[in-house]
Amino acid sequence: MLTEDYYVANKLMKGFIGSANIDTNSRLCMASSVAGHRRAFGADTVPACYEDLELADLVVLVGSNMAWCHPVLYQRLAAAKAARPSMKVVVIDPRKTATSDIADLHLAVRADGDIALFNGLLNYLSETGAVDENYVSRHTSGFPEALMAASPGSVSDLSEATGVSGMLIRQFYRLFGETEKVVTCYSQGVNQSAVGTDKVNAIINCHLATGRIGRPGMGPLSLTGQPNAMGGREVGGLANMLAAHMAIENPVHRDRVQRFWNSPTIADRPGLKAVDMFEAVADGRIKAVWIMSTNPVVSMPDADSVKAALQACPFVVVSDIQQDTDTARLAHVLLPATGWGEKSGTVTNSERWISRQRPFLSAPGEARADWWQMAEVGKRMGFGPAFDYSGEAQIFAEHAALSAFENEGERDFDIGAHAVISHGAYKELQPFQWPLRGDGSKLARFFADGGFFTADRRARLVPVETPALEKTDGRFPFTLNTGRIRDHWHTMTRTGKSARLSAHIAEPFCEIHPADAAQAGIGDADLVHVEGENGRSIIVRALLTERQMRGSVFVPMHWTGETAPSARVDTLVPRRVDPVSGQPALKMARVSIARHEAQAHGFLVTAKRPLDLPFAYWAIARTEGGYRLEFAGDQPADGWEEWLRRSLRLDERQDFSGYLDRQARDHRLLAFDGEHLLAALFVSPEPVSVSRQWAVEQLKERHLDSRTRSMLIAGRPAAGRPDKGAIVCSCFSVGINEISAAAHRGCRSVEAVGLVLNAGTNCGSCRPEIRRILDATQTLAAE
Ligand SMILES: Nc1nc2c(c(=O)[nH]1)N[C@H]1C(S)=C(S)[C@@H](COP(=O)(O)OP(=O)(O)OC[C@H]3O[C@@H](n4cnc5c(=O)[nH]c(N)nc54)[C@H](O)[C@@H]3O)O[C@H]1N2
Ligand SMILES: Nc1nc2c(c(=O)[nH]1)N[C@H]1C(S)=C(S)[C@@H](COP(=O)(O)OP(=O)(O)OC[C@H]3O[C@@H](n4cnc5c(=O)[nH]c(N)nc54)[C@H](O)[C@@H]3O)O[C@H]1N2
Ligand SMILES: [Mo]
Questions:
Q1: Topology of domain 727-782, per CATH?
Q2: Is the bond preceding 359 in cis, omega lying within 30 degrees of 0?
């Protein structure tokens, strides 16, 4: 959603329909940051900017897998550290992720142990004289109370509460205490928690107490999720906001916005937040819902209840750019929207820079801009003049004018300089940072000299209680952590269509510590059955790794009914929300794990998408020229050959070359169309060991002679036909075997690998993995 889309949605709902039952996807993503900012600063202000990452002497990354999720910014940080190695990076994450690649310290904090850690830090700063008394007394209130709440007595044992050794904690505290220029970045490991807002404030408290805010190289910096979550926040798209950073509870603000919109009504109280909203759909309080640019049947907690709610809802409208998504399938009316590359408008990034997004493709079919769809509905509801927009430029100008309307510096969000922007100027608009006021004044950073947006212009240090340790439950002994992988975006409606992006990780998985797996009798590449407290379960592939802490497992959020129906992880995540922000605790569910037994395991490479998949587990991914399918379950009643024929719509005349090892119960079936491979099926009672990348590439090869065909049956490359192994660099399709070979030939650095293979030289997001492969090769060589 571009800012113009969000603006029209919010105006239609709050000003004309008169309800605040509208929520942006930020509820799942940034709501705790918004709430934390508002509690501390009086407004949803991001005080710092990206340059601060380069100017800092210490960068603390909390609950952020920046290497995979903000790869461009991460590369900028990595470059800054490489240029100035004295700069320190600390990563705080229960898992050791790719982001730890550049970390001087990794604190494997236990789930939600962050508050104990930052409360402990506040204490330490106070005890060691690191508090900036001058800043605290001139610009803040609440310091004594915050310190009291953080007092050492509040936790019996800091190591226990955080899961981090005393030695590491002391190292981190000393570093933070001694370094003036500190930036603390945080993301979903902080926000998506039942104590998310408190986590945000525990972090901000440490910056306020040391006065390290708003100056070059210093400050808290919330890393935004969606490319334009910030735009959604600026127009007030959240159920509890109004518009242009004004508050729905404030009668002066309501009156002001209503006068500006010249609207018949104005929502006078916060609406239902996303989780409550779908509950209201479920129990019939809400009878019509318009879902735009989000796929809640996959991404909401307790996702099956969301699905059931939509199935029972009398009127469901979905605007999407894809015809088939788990949510679009439930729509009574499906509206085709223009997507990235086709639509025009503006977006705001994490450091408050607003940029134009310009279309370079024409809209396909009947697709229309999201704002246009809503404006047309507004007009037909009789609100003509208010929605009679000539284009995005006019919407943007109105949004800019509202930001400046009766704003005497009392509101942070002010882009009044563009209040009367022309179509031509909008077309040419260059990126700019907000605020950019009518008089042209700007501000790269906020709050170096106070000036907060509270009534007394002081920041609030919020007293934050350290939560009690979660009790472990005998039946559900594991913490389920969820999140993202490098090459997929959320519910994969776009990245899932790309063979290249699907090559890196083609299957849903569960990261488990090897010792936990051993106890549960789970081997690497087995399937795991993960069961949640709500009795629902998923089946995914086991990935044993010591980068995962004991007692916790990690499952990515991306797989859907389209791509792996047994792997929709949000079906297990309860509807537990942060009481302040309403953001769901998506990083913390209680689960049990067990080995999933299957009669047969299969791997299929096919030129056509297979239909009819009667298996307990399957996961499909695009490849160049076709698909790859992993599956496990019972043998179809009519046998593998008949199933394959049916599934791929092959006619009777189609011949199979086959191989059956009765003893091992291994089946291999190949189908060709002339010299091209149509399908290669490998079935075995154990997880199939076939080089996947090599097999997938056979779809592109010509298979003339029986020798290469027999190699295919054997499931391994013929001599002289290299197997690149699993893809590491998606930009240049470079596999792990090629990188290991380069390492054996003497490449010692990521740069050297880049020179010979190109790997890692484009987007850079595979550089941490390349380094790990080099380290592993060198360790092996040393042994
Ligand atoms: N490749 C890719 N990039 C993306 C996206 C994508 O889908 N794919 N989505 C975008 C969006 S919308 C978002 S919101 C961002 C998210 O970006 P991130 O927040 O960086 O990504 P996540 O993987 O959700 O979670 C980050 C980390 O939080 C850790 N974590 C879990 N629980 C805790 C805890 O209690 N404390 C701490 N300190 N850490 C914890 C997890 O182990 C995980 O490594 O990524 C954006 N970028
Ligand atoms: N377990 C777990 N669940 C999570 C998270 C997690 O870490 N763990 N993260 C949460 C977070 S931070 C986020 S941001 C959400 C993301 O969750 P969603 O927002 O539900 O996921 P997307 O796949 O980004 O859905 C976007 C939809 O919009 C469509 N679309 C794309 N462009 C356009 C457009 O221009 N117009 C229209 N109308 N449609 C368009 C896409 O095809 C897709 O169907 O997931 C949340 N859910
Ligand atoms: Mo997000």
A1: Arc Repressor Mutant, subunit A (1.10.10)
A2: no
Class of domain 3-23+228-393: alpha beta
Share of the chain above pLDDT 90, in %: 86
**769 φ, ψ (degrees, to nearest 5):** -70, -40
pTM above 0.90, yes or no: yes
Strand order in the sheet with 617-623: 617-623, 626-633, 600-606, 676-684, 666-673, 656-661
User: Is a pLDDT exceeding 90 seen at residue 653?
Assistant: no
DSSP string, 664-706: TTEEEEEEEETTEEEEEEEEESS-----HHHHHHTTTS---SH
Question: CA 449, CA 447: separation in Å to the nearest integer?
Answer: 5
Query: Which is more confident, 108 or 716?
Result: 108
**pLDDT at residue 718 greater than cutoff 70:** no
Contact predicate 7/413, CB 8 Å: no
481-531 pLDDT, tens per residue?
999 999 999 999 999 999 999 999 999 999 999 999 999 999 988 999 999
484, 486, 553, 766: residue to mutate for ligand 1 pocket, most atoms within 8 A of CB: 484
Instruction: Write the residue with the smallest CA distance to atom 7 of ligand 2.
Output: 483
Q: Comparing 156-160, 310-314, 546-550, which segment has the lowest mean pLDDT?
A: 156-160
Domain 478-595 has CATH 2.60.200.30: no
Return the bridge partners of 676, or none. Answer: 673
Pocket residue to mutate for ligand 1, from 27, 65, 498, most atoms within 8 A of Cβ: 65
In this structure, which topology does domain 31-222 adopt according to CATH? Dimethylsulfoxide Reductase; domain 2 (3.40.228)
Residues 6+ apart with CB under 8 A from 535: none
- Annotated domain spans of the chain: 3-23+228-393, 31-222, 478-595, 600-714, 727-782
Instruction: Pick the ligand that lies closest to the CA of residue 111.
Output: 1
First to last CA, the chain: 53
CA-nearest of 585, 604, 475, 616 to 535 is 475
Pairing mode of beta strands 288-292, 459-460: unpaired
pLDDT tens column, 80-90: 999 999 999 99
